[in-house]
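Researcher: I'd like a candidate sequence for this fold, 743 residues long. If you have to choose between options at a position, lean toward the conservative one.
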């Protein structure tokens, strides 16, 4: 162990504050022809060049108003107010003043900045009570209630323990929350608290999610109120057999470690069961989800009658999804329908029960694209609502009074997302958002209006209010970033590249501002390449896009390509990576480079690549297996050995390692480390709880064995994104100089 550590230190540059002095802002050219030059310091500092979106947008329960936070001033002088906008006229009015907001939550004397009453802050989370007459505000350890009309409030819960997943019961009588790994209630009338579950611990969570379920199944909660408020269904997550990974604080004198329950591929998963607790009392009782416990419970919903639960059961290899209907009194279940896929099943949030209690909406990728279907409770398909060679992305609302289903989809283009509606009978298909780009819409509870967050490649996100038919009511936040006009930004060109087997792949190019087709330019390829993501989209690209503009100003062409395995083009487009990750993706990326080489202005001997997370994994594959193509690479937070990654994600695509050992080996960049030819930079946060730092240490060890030198930036205590501004600035300063020096 000692010799390995010494070898590591000879090639690993541990980040320290002295690095800041290496890269003073003045080190970069400050102008380009026709405008100012972007700098790393400016891109990763405040105020953001992407602007600032309005926070806390929340519909009132009747859908007639939209509430939001408005911040006046900046820094220590900033004050936050709560405003509302009329959903018909767009008129605004102040609802809760800043001083009132700051006094709603009790002072937390356990926090040094608040022990003397100083350091009060406005709450950042709130919910409207179902009657619209009052608001529930949430702090880290406290809940407070405010009567809107009288502007009087009272504390509901206060203490030192953290509160999470706060919900208001449908009948407005109780507020539920998770505390100390158990479910709790506080009664709104008398303020009395009581535990709904007992015996919850860090090993057995009751109504509380673990790490891997929200990360990989995108489940947002572990408990659900019945529509009539008589019961709560919840997940019990038993993690006692799940392996623990130490997140070591290497910067502390004693090397303190936080133990994280982290199920790895092929290892033990949490054992998850569904329970129902009656508010009238008694011991919670279990729902029968079958004898097999090595399964996933990715979704739970109540039926309108409050007597039955819908439980989705997914097998360990994620090839079979069963929709179970459970009697909440007996716990017995029956299978309403099943989905089977030879590759894997992507779980969605698209289950919706109509109020008649006899029908439900369901989405499926069985056709190769995700579409909506209408079923009866016996599992008989009644209608197909959408169809075509495109995907629906999400179910956004159902207006049963008018017979409309609202949803987001990529029907217009896989590069864009728009809001649509269709009749429950499958007629009247209509696109509601018109501006080309990417839209994220949130409909009012009465489905009479929606607010939309919109962007495109040249426009930072803005927020607007619309009627349900798509006609505009008012601007919520134009988010016009005037400073962007000071910089000469290049346009992003969208194109398609044909793969060697004839598949058209979406790609983008950013050229230098002073582009001259008679010159030869180096190319920097930006990649992600993995499932559920796209790098080629008609959407604002944030800081990455601006850094690419910086590199274009320094004379680089920026190229991106969405290979097979990426999102937006249907399930069949994803599945070529099944059982072997990194192969099809790299093949498509190489075809992208072949296209680049056909361009007379591309210097084929100066092509580099970079990416983060799966993109870092892809960068390592490229540098190790395609060293004849890629001369320089930067891999951030990379997965280097899939045996180290979490069970749900990894097994979905590679199966169990016990049954696909070769696939795991071939899919892991560490296998090919000895083939490195070019210059490589790797960055990783030592506190990364997603892709553990062990991934980078593993590949470093193999590189040492092969006598290969790489540069490594280790960021003490940082997580997967290395996102705090000081660390991000240091990181991107070094990445910039690395490419300037070597490409």
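Model: Candidate sequence:
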């Amino acid at each position: 162990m000692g010799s390995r550590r010494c070898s590591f230190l000879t090639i690993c540059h541990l980040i320290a504050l002295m690095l800041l002095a290496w890269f003073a802002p003045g080190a970069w050219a400050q102008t380009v022809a026709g405008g100012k030059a972007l700098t790393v310091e400016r891109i990763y500092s405040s105020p953001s060049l992407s602007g600032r979106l309005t926070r806390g947008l929340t519909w009132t329960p009747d859908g007639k108003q939209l509430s939001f936070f408005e911040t006046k001033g900046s820094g220590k002088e900033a004050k936050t107010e709560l405003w509302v906008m009329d959903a018909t006229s767009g008129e605004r009015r102040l609802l809760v003043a800043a001083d009132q907001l700051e006094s709603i939550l009790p002072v937390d004397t356990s926090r040094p900045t608040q022990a003397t009453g100083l350091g009060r802050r406005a709450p950042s989370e709130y919910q409207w009570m179902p009657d619209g007459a009052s608001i529930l505000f949430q702090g880290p350890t406290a809940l407070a209630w405010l009567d809107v009309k009288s502007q009087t409030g009272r504390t509901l819960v206060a203490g030192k323990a953290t509160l999470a997943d706060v919900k208001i019961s449908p009948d407005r009588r109780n507020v539920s929350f998770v505390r100390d790994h158990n479910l709790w209630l506080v009664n709104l009338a008398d303020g009395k608290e009581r535990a709904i579950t007992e015996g919850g611990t860090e090993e057995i969570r009751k109504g509380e999610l673990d790490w891997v379920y929200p990360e990989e199944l995108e489940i947002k909660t572990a408990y659900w109120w019945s529509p009539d408020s008589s019961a709560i269904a919840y997940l019990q997550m038993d993690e006692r057999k799940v392996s623990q990974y130490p997140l070591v604080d290497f910067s502390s004198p004693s090397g303190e470690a936080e133990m994280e329950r982290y199920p790895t591929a092929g290892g033990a998963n949490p054992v998850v069961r569904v329970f129902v607790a009656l508010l009238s009392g008694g011991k919670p009782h279990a729902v029968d989800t079958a004898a097999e416990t090595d399964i996933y419970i990715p979704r739970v919903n109540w039926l309108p009658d409050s007597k039955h639960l819908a439980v989705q059961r997914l097998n360990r290899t994620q090839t079979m999804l069963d929709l179970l209907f459970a009697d909440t009194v007996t716990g017995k279940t029956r299978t309403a329908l099943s989905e089977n896929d030879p590759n894997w099943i992507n779980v969605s949030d698209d289950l919706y029960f109509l109020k008649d209690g006899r029908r439900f909406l369901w989405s499926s990728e069985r056709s190769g694209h995700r579409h909506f279907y209408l079923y009866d409770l016996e599992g008989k398909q009644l209608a197909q609502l959408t169809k075509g060679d495109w995907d629906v992305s999400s179910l956004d609302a159902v207006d049963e009074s008018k017979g409309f289903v609202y949803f987001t989809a990529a029907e217009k283009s896989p590069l864009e997302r728009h809001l649509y509606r269709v009749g429950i009978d499958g007629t009247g298909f209509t696109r509601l958002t018109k501006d080309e780009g990417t839209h994220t819409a949130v409909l009012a509870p009465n489905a009479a209006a929606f607010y939309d967050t919109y962007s495109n490649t040249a426009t930072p996100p803005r927020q607007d209010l619309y009627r349900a038919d798509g006609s505009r009511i008012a601007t919520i936040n134009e988010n016009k970033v005037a400073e962007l006009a000071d910089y000469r930004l290049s346009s992003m060109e969208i194109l398609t590249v044909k793969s060697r087997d004839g598949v058209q792949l979406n790609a983008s190019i950013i050229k230098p501002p002073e582009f001259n087709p008679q010159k030869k330019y180096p190319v920097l390829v930006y990649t992600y390449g993995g499932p559920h993501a796209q790098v080629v989209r008609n959407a604002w690209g944030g800081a990455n896009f601006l850094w690419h503009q910086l590199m274009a100003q320094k004379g680089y062409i920026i190229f991106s390509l969405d290979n097979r395995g990426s999102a937006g083009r249907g399930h069949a487009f994803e599945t070529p990576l099944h059982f072997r990750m990194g192969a099809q993706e790299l093949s498509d990326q190489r075809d992208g480079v072949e296209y680049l080489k056909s361009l007379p202005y591309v210097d084929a001997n100066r092509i580099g690549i970079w990416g983060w997370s799966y993109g870092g994994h892809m960068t390592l594959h490229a540098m190790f297996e395609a060293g004849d193509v890629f001369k320089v690479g930067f891999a951030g937070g990379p997965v280097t050995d899939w045996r180290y990654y979490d069970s749900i994600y990894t097994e979905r695509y590679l199966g169990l390692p016990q049954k696909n050992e070769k696939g795991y080996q071939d899919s892991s960049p560490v296998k090919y480390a000895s083939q490195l030819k070019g210059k490589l930079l790797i960055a990783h946060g030592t506190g990364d709880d997603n892709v553990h730092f062990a991934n980078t240490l593993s590949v470093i060890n193999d590189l040492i064995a092969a006598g290969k030198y790489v540069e490594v930036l280790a960021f003490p205590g940082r997580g997967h994104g290395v996102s705090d501004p000081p660390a991000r600035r240091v990181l991107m300063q070094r990445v910039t100089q690395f490419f300037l020096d070597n490409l």
